[in-house]
Design goal:
Rossmann fold; binds S-adenosyl-L-homocysteine; OB fold (Dihydrolipoamide Acetyltransferase, E2P); about 450 residues; 3 domains
């Protein structure tokens, strides 16, 4: 077989112009149509780069010098941005981030979805794109006798001690600082992956932005936490509005953070928070959106697209702890939610009760199995909402939607590429995509969330 001749060689130094950003925030430059992915490059910039790795269809390079900078380039605010890897776009101004995310969505709609006549709205961003995350979860290590905690250096398990995280609420930074200090003072040893010894593995802090309530979760290797009483007393004395201290025991040799045993050390089992009118009780293991402010924006858009009058039957597929279901139930006749994780459905039912919502019903199982069953039993939706994980909707679910023919489908997605793929399938099955509204749930990172409205063309 003839070897394919690539337009560049490894270690070659060349000059390139960046054309685009990938979905994970790398710059893209092309040499005779051959794409090179290059960290830190921004669209429009010209740079001298060195080719580092070549594959058949694409390669990698690194920047040696930027000749012409983008007008959207800024100096990253965070001192550990380059090492940390938690954010990917701090070198791009927030205005530039929103433009890039809109382009990312409209590109995949054309390239993957081949969707025509769709309105793609500008990204709904945050007024202040910092300090938005309500949950912090970091591994614990040790340096010169003291405890450290923070993210791993990219592609390693070396912990970078984090004093503050600029996308995290300040309350959580404070919790992490105090846990390190207090546990260090009482001789708690960090868990060591190599020897499989030590006590404290991870610390999670969760803050209810509306309620102001704080939860601390200590994830330990051992069931016992030495000096437990003293540690609890000091945490309670120093953390304002602390409502819950929980210990989770994970004694396994694993990268998975949580173990199966969870016990309340002090206070309540849950903290509460609210999105709009709906209250949520959040336990240590519950999934809860990390940016509640933008979640409200996203769900309000979903509610607007659903266009409910009070007479509709709605299905919420991939419903998690029932967040969207409860939002929709305020305006629908009946909402059916389905989700694969049993604990999430426990939370969903509890949250329905907490809010006195009676017109929802939740089921545990795969959306692609439960919804066809419902359909056989005569449950048909006027509006069907999906909010699948990154891989998108299962084909069997899309098939059922096309049989059931709900008048409207509201597709909430955290991955524009699989969204575009699924919209194409639904368009071929009798739907038209009218609008796509991207929402910036994760400023400074490369992620973008979308809410889209599809209607049946034959109704
Ligand atoms: N709508 C929720 C959660 C969306 S995340 C919210 O906004 O909070 C996607 C959810 O889909 C996760 O909770 C995941 O557990 C669930 N899930 C994944 N595969 C599934 C499947 N095949 N059927 C049903 N739920 C699934």
């Amino acid at each position: 077989m003839a070897k394919v001749q690539l337009p560049v060689q490894k270690n070659q130094i060349i000059e390139v112009t960046f054309e685009d950003l990938t979905h994970d925030g790398n710059g893209v430059a092309k040499v005779d149509g051959y794409p090179l992915f290059i960290a830190n490059g921004l669209p429009g910039e010209r740079a001298k780069v060195k080719v580092t790795k070549l594959n058949k269809g694409y390669g990698f390079a690194k920047i040696l010098e930027i000749y012409e900078k983008s007008r959207y380039r800024v100096i990253p605010e965070c001192p550990i941005y380059e090492e940390c890897g938690g954010c990917q776009l701090q070198h791009l101004s927030y205005e530039g981030q929103l433009i890039a995310k809109e382009k990312q969505v409209s590109d995949v709609m054309q390239r993957i979805g081949k969707i025509e006549n769709v309105t793609i709205h500008p990204v709904l961003g945050m007024e202040s794109p910092w300090r938005y995350r309500n949950k912090s979860q970091v591994p614990i290590g040790e340096r010169e006798g003291g405890l450290i905690g923070g993210f791993y250096r990219q592609r390693t398990h070396d912990i970078i001690d984090m004093k503050e995280c600029l996308i995290q609420v300040e309350e959580n930074d404070h919790v992490l600082k105090k846990v390190k200090e207090i546990c260090g003072k009482y001789g708690i040893k960090p868990y060591d992956e190599k020897s499989h010894k030590g006590v404290l593995r991870h610390v999670m802090a969760r803050y209810g932005k509306i309620s102001g309530e704080t939860m601390i979760v200590l994830i330990t290797k051992t069931a016992e936490l030495p000096n437990r009483k003293k540690i609890i007393a000091e945490l309670v004395a120093t953390i304002p509005n602390l409502k819950s201290i929980v210990q989770n025991v994970n004694s396994k040799r694993t990268n998975v953070i949580f173990g199966n045993e969870t016990k309340v050390l002090w206070g309540r089992e849950t903290i509460t928070d609210s999105i709009g009118e709906i209250q949520f009780a959040i336990s240590a293991r519950s999934f809860y959106q990390v940016n509640p402010e933008q979640t409200k924006v996203l769900y309000e858009k979903a509610l607007e697209y659903a266009g409910l009058t009070g007479a509709e039957t709605v299905i919420d597929a991939y419903c998690g702890i029932g967040t969207i279901s409860l939002f929709l139930a305020q305006k629908a006749k009946k909402v059916y939610g389905v989700e694969i994780i049993p604990e999430a459905i426990d939370d969903a039912r509890r949250n329905a009760q907490l809010n006195g919502v009676e017109n929802v019903e939740f089921a545990v199982g795969e959306a692609e199995k439960i919804i066809p069953n419902w359909y056989k039993q005569g449950i048909e939706a006027d509006v069907l909402v999906v909010d699948p994980p990154r891989k998108g909707c299962d084909q069997a679910l899309l098939d059922t939607i096309m049989q059931m023919k709900p008048k409207k489908v509201v597709y909430v997605s955290c991955n524009p590429a699989t969204l575009a793929r699924d919209l194409r399938i639904l368009e071929d099955g009798g739907y038209q995509t009218l609008e796509v509204q991207p929402v910036d749930m994760f400023p400074m990172t490369a992620h973008v969330e979308c809410c889209s409205l599809l209607v049946r063309t034959d109704k």
